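Here is one chain, start to finish.
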Amino acid sequence: MSGLDERLQQVQLIVACDVTNPLCGERGASVVFGPQKGATPELVQQLDANLAHYAEVVKQQLGKDVRDLPGAGAAGGLGAGLMIFTRATLQRGIEIVIEYTGLKEKMAGADLVFTGEGGIDFQTKFGKTPYGVAATAKAGGKKVIALAGYIGEGIDTLYAEGIDAIFGIVPGASDLEKLLKNGPANVERTCENIARVLRLAE
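Its structure:
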């Protein structure tokens, strides 16, 4: 701690954090995000144990208990580090964006709300953009349709969070370069088909 710039103690940091995962445990940084980065089950256990040890050292030496704080597990534990070594407070990034853009006000006259993400799965409900958009829309009584490059596991949990329907935009197996190149066309085609279904209900 002696190596920290003293000016940091005079600065209040507001950190945009898109997840609520704690540092350790079943919903912690290692278990949830480790496999996405290539960690094996054995390595995930080691990483989680290392972070638990780190949290215990911090608690003993600095009197700060960050192990189970929401957002502490963001970016592999960066959330915890910011809360430990600076006067940072974590706020959901989507909440900051919603307030800055005036999304709630812009949504007021909408009949239907579209949102999207590169990939939608069970992690989306932990504060990612579609979750924030859906929560805002639900508060205003709006229906929400989400689009995604790919649809992962556990999306059924999102229906209770304000997302009414989820559509994948990828037409078939393809390499990443082609998918990125054709992204706009894939979104346009998917939205057209959604609109055609909506017209059937008229």
